[in-house]
Design goal:
Chain lengths: 177, 216
């Protein structure tokens, strides 16, 4: 299911080194194209519940088991080749107008799988990693992009403003220790 | 010649001081009368005073502020344009106003209105300009030893434009304040002073001068 390129031991080693030096790594075309498209279609059919906590986040979320099963069976073994996992919270997140995730104080290891194909970062909604002192790293939204962070940097998702009306951004987010 | 210059300088200074005393609308001259309303307002102490400053002066101030340098500020919490620190402005109109705000007379006025102890001579002050898609998400303003937050609106917005200042109790906006030219807003800072600036939905420009007083 994961693009064969990322199962190569030499590539895994490069990813490990990059994450050790930069904390965040972005792997493009992460899933095989057919699987990514299928997963995206599943996302569009899911029912999302709204969660709005003013001082923290606003988004739609789902914990659909068939989607998360794919993550558990395919993505977690891949992550285990790179780093350790003791405990993981998984959710499927839908970002639309007025949604955001603020910078959190807690530092977790994190992965984000982007499954959005009609998003423009000028709408907001972009993922940014920050060291808390003004140094930031912006991740451009790309369909089928996998972002892995080792937890030294914290992340936020920019408020999605009125230009994003009727558009949706889907992500599978895993926070882990 | 030097004596003449000195006399002129003193007269000019006196004129500025008199101007300062006249800056506030007479109907708001007694801060003690406003204090009760301020402290009784919900969800936390605040007050909105329309036509607060002398309109001619405020118009000059607005024109001066339009000439200041603004930079785009972006973080997880906000996107908007902000001026440089106006304590360091070279513009004489802004400089005079900042001096007035930092001075004993106006600081005491705000002390009485907000029933707080404020440090004279110390404020943080910036102008902000919000336009389409700009916003400030909910926060409490509790930074350093800030005591009260103050803002004077310098542009007129309509409900459809967005850009309202919203005061929250838990997850609910209990108060919504539409920016109007010469509308003055003060609120007391605490863990409860949750507020945001609603996103701007149109090409309207929301120009505001905002500042904070600090604990004595």
């Amino acid at each position: 299911m994961i693009n064969d390129y990322y199962s190569n031991n030499a590539i895994i080693k490069i990813i490990k080194n990059k994450i050790a030096s930069e904390d965040v790594v972005e792997l493009r075309d992460f899933l095989k194209p057919k699987i990514a498209k299928k997963l995206f279609k599943n996302m569009e059919k899911l029912k999302f519940l709204r969660e709005e906590k003013l001082m923290s986040h606003s988004y739609g979320y789902s914990t659909n088991s068939s989607v998360l099963k794919i993550v558990i069976n395919e993505i977690i073994p891949f992550i285990l080749d790179i780093t350790t996992i003791k405990d993981m919270d998984l959710s499927i997140v839908k970002i639309t107008h007025k949604d955001y995730i603020l910078l959190h104080e807690d530092k977790h290891k994190l992965f984000i799988l982007e499954l959005t194909n009609e998003w423009d970062d000028t709408y907001g909604g972009r993922i940014t990693f920050s060291d808390g002192s003004g140094t930031t790293k912006n991740i451009t939204t790309r369909f089928n992009s996998f972002i892995l962070s080792n937890g030294k940097l914290r992340f936020f998702i920019k408020y999605s403003h009125n230009k994003s009306k009727n558009k949706h951004k889907y992500m599978i987010i895993g926070r882990f220790k | 010649m030097n004596i003449l210059l000195l006399v002129f300088h003193k007269l000019f200074k006196l004129k500025l001081m008199n101007l300062n005393m006249l800056l506030i609308n007479k109907k708001y001259a007694n801060p003690e009368l406003l204090a009760k309303k301020f402290s009784g307002n919900k969800p936390f102490p605040y007050i909105v005073l329309d036509k607060f400053f002398d309109e001619k002066f405020l118009d000059k101030l607005r024109n001066a502020l339009k000439k200041e340098h603004y930079e785009l500020k972006e973080a997880d919490l906000f996107t908007f344009m902000q001026s440089n620190d106006l304590n360091r402005t070279k513009n004489i109109v802004i400089k005079t106003f900042v001096k007035f705000l930092k001075g004993k007379e106006f600081t005491n006025y705000i002390e009485k209105l907000s029933e707080s102890k404020l440090k004279i001579g110390k404020i943080s002050i910036h102008a902000t300009a919000y336009t389409n898609t700009h916003y400030l998400l909910c926060h409490d303003d509790e930074v350093d030893d800030r005591v009260v937050a103050l803002m004077i609106y310098l542009s007129d917005l309509e409900n459809k434009d967005g850009g309202k200042l919203r005061l929250f109790e838990k997850n609910n906006a209990l108060v919504e304040i539409i920016p109007k030219f010469n509308r003055f807003v003060i609120f007391k800072i605490s863990k409860k002073s949750l507020h945001d600036v609603e996103e701007i939905y149109t090409d309207a420009i929301r120009l505001t001068l905002g500042w904070w007083y600090y604990d004595k």
